[in-house]
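Justification of computing resources. Each target in the renewal requires a structure prediction run like the one illustrated here; the chain below, 359 residues long, is used simply to show the kind of job we budget for.
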Amino acid sequence: MNSGLIAEIRSAMVTSHGDQLASAREQASRIAPLMSHNEREQIVRDVVRDVNGLGPLQQYLDDPDVSEVMVVEGKHIWIETRGGLHHVGQIGAQELSLCLERITRSAGRRLDLLSPILDARLSDGSRVCVVIAPIAMGGTTLAIRKFTQRILPLAAFGPQECTDIVRELVRNKTNVIISGATSSGKTSLISSISNSFTATDRVVCVEDTAELRFSHQHVVRLQTRPATSEGAGEITLQHLVRASLRLRPDRIIVGEVRGAEVVDLLLALTSGHRGSWATVHSNGVADTINRLTTLILRDSPQWSISTVHDTISRGIGAIVHVERLSQRTRNISHISLIAREQDTLHLENLYVHQPRGAQ
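Resulting structure tokens:
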């Protein structure tokens, strides 16, 4: 193992100044002069990665073919690629501790027995969740979901028949909910759709964690803030939705609706804010209606079902549902208009994905 050599070179670099890569090469040549050029360059890369990044995990974060990096039971490293999940090695306790220290320091958050769960965002936009023992039985669990900087073309989510309907929803300034399961492509789809916005549109985007990517030239971005260890200073998604209404939006984008902000958003959408988009976790188009209804009643139990359905039908014009298929591909599976019939909501399908081979 080269861990001892890496630690020695890293320790020697403390007194060095200037470029870290050059410094690492200098110290590696001095400490291990008989090592081959290729071995030395690999050690140098490991040292720089250890100094700047997340140690053994950094190589997977740098790999464009890796979409997720996970640590299980405090030592086992798993990654996700197009081929699925792979066990690729182990991380030492000291290395993992250093990773957690860098994550918490960059996020300005605490991770200890009183706060054993951490949700944060890395500097490259990746989203990380950490759960430590004893909540994580067996040892620390860590999951880092990487987000590509590249915005996929709309054509990546369906055939022209499908994408033409989506563009028509954008042109008509229809308020749309994008639904889907975790990692189904909701965030990627909104990023892609934003390319169809008019250049003069002022977009106000609110998110729990900044994940959306925009090439649009006029975007105001707001991000939630957790409470301090003293329980003060929290800024919720509900706060941001309310603030967005006072920022003169042409379009409001909500990264994920999952709490009390749903009422504020729907009231805004029924009062003249058109062309807005939001995402919701759900298993299907019909389930999206049920989830929105549940979220509203949880925050406003005094509302009747009739009032809830009326508000949803007046605030939201369509639902676009995305699904994750094999080999990490994401597709739009349904596009449905929402209409109210008496006391119930009716869905009219504009597009239904037909799998290959289906009749």
